[in-house]
Amino acid sequence: MLPAFSKWPREKKIQWILKDLPQANHIKKKIQECLHPQEHIQKNMEGLSENVLTNFILPYSVAPHFLINQKIYHVPLVTEESSVVAALAKAAKFWYTRGGFRTSVLSTQKEGQIHFRWYGDIQKLYDHWQWIKIKMLEATQSITEDMKKRGGGIQTIQLKEKKNIASFYYQIHVTFDTCDAMGANFINTCLEAMAKACQIYVTAQWPCIAFEIIMSILSNHAPHCMVISRVSCAIKDLGYIHGIAPPIFAEKFALATHIAHHDIYRAATHNKGILNGIDALALATGNDCRAIETAVHVYAAAEGCYQGLTKVSLEEDVFTVQLKLPLMIGVVGGMTRLHPLVETSLRLLQKPNAIDLMQIMAAVGLASHFSALTALITTGIQQGHMRMHLHNLLSCYKLTLAQREKAMVYFQNQVVSTQAVKDYIRKNVS
């Protein structure tokens, strides 16, 4: 074991990690190439994580002209997948002339739990519940003071019996409004203070009854932090899409959505198409895409079977696609203060509050889905996807600018694949 490895200077860490590796100098050069030239920014980056060696750089892109609730946004995206950006830009352009995206936030409540065991008569806790709640709220006063000033804080506190899960097991279920913050640290700090206050009260009242706190933690299940996004137009106004007549396209799109509601294999990829866009915007705005994905997938399985998250209506010759999903996100705290491009992203989005960003993110998710499903039911996903990868495939070979441009022209009318590029290079590049 290494004593205090995390305390070592970055250079010492790099030397130790590379000391027995082949091509250590080459690796070290690559590590150094990705360090930020401005020392204060590099220090900020190193403060974001533990045992930092360098920075892992991803493209920072934009999908322009998203019309959301009659307001135009140019959406920043962080992703290595060029087809995601292209798909979003294409969907934004398509719906710009058809009314754009309509969004609304249904609720913003977040939740956490104190898990505990109580080996006495549960009625004792119920009889003292109001006093226990008072003690728990008193314990969080200093934590919640600023949040209350912004209109948030602790909303409700409930005692729940969960003996069906384990013997003597109960929960204290707490709901929160965290305003413009995602609120994970705020919620967890509150819960731990509340658990301690509960422990003190119960131990003082019933010293002979065992009371055991198991854990105190927020939940990433967010069924009461919901947003809806929809697009809609007359079926005839869809126009011909890749040569397919509007009624046929609309019916096929609806059938593909129906399949995702009843087939788990299709549902998984259906929802991944939504998250392609959401994750890219989440990264650009400093939000936790892992927490977002967890909440989305749990919600998709809320009815006991994993399902696609979108719905399609073809009533009265109107084509409507709707996406409803949970989004636990924030625009203050954490990365918004530390990462310079997160602040830039929020400025590009005209300094949204959390509710605004929920709606923008839901619209982006729907746009990502619309482009993906449109490709699937028309040309197939690979035609556009692989064409976007042509640049990357050609970068694997040492080509002159003229050779690259000639290859790009050649593949304008050809199917792009790894093998096709390899064959072209073998035949045309000496």
Topology (elements, then pairings):
Layout: H1 10-18, H2 24-33, H3 39-47, E1 60-68, E2 71-78, H4 82-96, E3 102-105, E4 110-118, H5 122-127, H6 129-139, H7 141-149, E5 153-161, E6 169-177, H8 184-205, E7 211-218, E8 226-234, H9 246-262, H10 264-284, H11 289-300, E9 310-313, E10 318-326, H12 335-338, H13 340-348, H14 354-377, H15 381-388, H16 390-394, H17 401-410, H18 418-428
Antiparallel strand pairs: 1-2, 3-8, 4-6, 4-7, 5-6, 8-10, 9-10
Helix pairs in contact: 4-14, 6-8, 9-10, 10-11, 10-14
What does it look like?
It is built from 18 helices and ten strands. The protein is α+β, with helices and mostly antiparallel strands. It has four domains: 5-47, no CATH class; 60-106 and 225-381, 3-hydroxy-3-methylglutaryl-coenzyme A Reductase, Chain A, domain 2, CATH 3.90.770; 110-218, Alpha-Beta Plaits, CATH 3.30.70; 389-428. The strands form three sheets. A four-stranded antiparallel sheet has the order 3-8-10-9. The chain has a four-stranded antiparallel sheet with strand order 5-6-4-7. It has a two-stranded antiparallel ribbon with strand order 1-2. The radius of gyration is 26 Å and the shape is globular.
What summary fits the major beta sheet?
4 strands, antiparallel
Strand percent estimate: 15-25%
Distance between the termini: 52 Å
Oligomer state equals single chain
Number of strands: 10
Which percent bin holds the helix content?
40-55%
> In the CATH scheme, what's the topology name of the largest domain?
3-hydroxy-3-methylglutaryl-coenzyme A Reductase, Chain A, domain 2
Rounded to the nearest angstrom, the radius of gyration is 26 Å
One letter per element, helices H and strands E, the order comes to HHHEEHEEHHHEEHEEHHHEEHHHHHHH
Name of the CATH homologous superfamily of the largest domain: 3-hydroxy-3-methylglutaryl-coenzyme A Reductase, Chain A, domain 2
List low-confidence stretches: none
Q: Count the domains.
A: 4
State the name of the first-level CATH class of the largest domain.
Alpha Beta
- The geometry reads as globular
Number of helices in the DSSP assignment: 18
The spatial strand order of the largest sheet comes to 3-8-10-9
By secondary-structure content and strand pairing, the structural class works out as alpha+beta
